[in-house]
Design goal:
about 130 residues, two-stranded antiparallel sheet, 2 strands, mainly alpha
Length: about 130
């Protein structure tokens, strides 16, 4: 299936990768999901180039470049994910200090005047902490 549509996979994958990379960096801010979508586009272009029926010099070069870029990008994403998750895990394990002067509750979605489940959970945890540590 990929072999008969290899041009669409290459062009579509590259457009997909560039779109999500630019969306991530120019419009939407830093987003791990957008980076994964960009890598998915590069992988689609790699598959299209890999299954192309002719092995012209430009397709061979494109396969090599896309393979290296996709593998390096996936490794960077994986390593950064592990580092970030470790920092989150380690930060969540710390005990609160008794001499804290303020408490910050991160926001979440609000539906009209009703808080979302995640915001409600955060507010309840903050209220519990304030009741224990006036």
């Amino acid at each position: 299936m990929i072999g008969s549509y290899y041009r669409q996979w290459i062009i579509g994958g590259l457009i997909w990768a560039v779109f999500f990379f630019l969306s991530r960096n120019l419009f939407l801010g830093v987003s791990f999901l957008m980076l994964l979508f960009s890598l998915g586009g590069l992988f689609a272009a790699y598959l299209g180039a890999l299954y192309a029926p002719w092995k012209t010099p430009w397709i061979i070069a494109l396969v090599k470049v896309l393979k290296v870029v996709t593998l390096v990008g996936a490794c960077v994403v994986f390593v950064s994910f592990v580092i970030i998750e470790f920092k989150i895990w380690r930060g969540g394990k710390s005990d609160p200090r008794e001499d804290t002067e303020c408490l910050v509750v991160l926001g979440a979605g609000v539906y009209g005047t009703r808080p979302s489940a995640s915001l409600r959970s955060r507010m309840e945890a903050a209220l519990g902490y304030l009741n224990e540590h006036p």
